[in-house]
Amino acid sequence: MTTKTLMTTVAALAISATAVMAQDRTIGFSQIGSESGWRAAETTLTRTEAEERGYQLQFSDAQQRQENQIAAIRSFIAQGVDAILLAPVVATGWDSVLQEAKEAEIPVVLLDRQVDSSDDLYLTAVGSNLVHEGQVAGEWLANEVGDRECRIVELQGTTGSSPAIDRKSGFESGIADHANLEIVRSQTGDFTRALGKEVMESFIQAENGGKDICALYAHNDDMAVGAIQAIKEAGLKPGEDILVVSIDGVPDIFQAMADGEANATVELTPNMAGPAFDALEAFWADGTEPEKFLQTESKLFTQADDPAAEYEARKGLGY
Ligand code: GZL
Predict the structure, then answer these.
(1) Which of 88, 131, 177, 283 has its CA 20 to 30 A from that of 147?
(2) Comparing 76 with 19, which gets the higher pLDDT?
(3) For the whole model, what pTM was predicted?
(4) pLDDT, tens digit, for every residue of 17-34?
(5) Mean pLDDT across 51-75
(6) What is the torsional sign of CA 106, 112, 114, 115?
(7) Residue 255 Cα, ligand 1 centroid: separation in angstroms?
(8) Ligand 1: which atom is nearest the Cα of residue 219?
(9) Percent of the chain with pLDDT over 70
């Protein structure tokens, strides 16, 4: 056998061994639910990524209830999965179930949200800098309004979730040096379009038919899209009478921006599974311990960034 043939054979064996190793792997994924377009995209991309890497994915949709996530994790432990992906709906209440996974020697990777538990209870967390996202949104609005008085209404994410906590504090720091900007009403829309619309209707009613509102800051695009509908139904022009800034970068917010009905979004990548699986594969290969936080990038988009093209680029990516 020539050296070249030998090398080709070795390479082929190495690839097939990796594939066999991956095919032996079963991953439990405790997903929050399908509350937003972004969440749907994250689920789609996780399924695709697992399939491409030859993993068996056990998927659980918690319908945004922590007790369902905890039950799913316990079921994954009982099944003896090789790893668990967890997108934690809220930040607290995970210590005991994460301790059970640790005792079962099943690595847990957090996706897109953080937990208050000690970081020795999970392998790593993949996500964006949520505070930074809020700060970028606040700084954009401050720059946009200049010295004009601006009464802001805020649609918060799910109460007790790390994005709701961090995006609120980040936005407040982004406007802190601008006394002419003030958050006058703030309430959770639970990251959904329906509740975002409903809460915005109450803000409009409380604020002189919306005429006293200068801007909406929504912790995700889906609540902003719902609020845009409420603004239009009140006879006002979203994007003009009321500026709209939010976070995620889902296709429909780019469509709204192209229509002049939204002004800015901070993009959050839905591909958290790629870095998660890379970290798990390094850990399985030779015990490599990853950093405890693998940060994904955030990028501001405004109406100046060809939103129609950005819409086309994201349409059909599982949102
Ligand atoms: C943020 C993520 C949030 C998205 C929302 O990392 O947890 O959850 O911004 C989703 O669209 O509901």
Answers:
(1) 131
(2) 76
(3) 0.93
(4) 555 455 589 999 999 999
(5) 98
(6) negative
(7) 19
(8) 9
(9) 93
Three-class secondary structure of residue 120 per DSSP? helix
**For residues 214 and 152, is the Cβ–Cβ distance under 8 A?**
yes
Q: How far is the CA of 246 from the centre of ligand 1 (A)?
A: 11
User: Which residues line the pocket of ligand 1, CB cutoff 6 A?
Assistant: 35-36, 38-39, 112-113, 127-128, 163, 191, 220, 222, 247-248, 268
Which of 268, 293, 298, 314 has most ligand 1 atoms within 8 Å of its beta carbon, as the pocket-test mutant? 268
Please state, rounded to an integer, the average pLDDT across all residues of the chain: 95
Q: Which of 30, 36, 245 to mutate to test the pocket of ligand 1 (most atoms within 8 A of CB)?
A: 36
* pLDDT tens-digit map of 119-143: 999 999 999 999 999 999 999 999 9
Q: Where are the alpha helices (DSSP H) in the chain?
A: 3-23, 37-52, 66-79, 95-103, 130-145, 162-175, 193-206, 221-233, 251-258, 273-286, 307-314
Q: Whole-angstrom Cα distance, residue 202 to residue 133?
A: 26
Residue 190 C-alpha to ligand 1 middle, in angstroms?
10
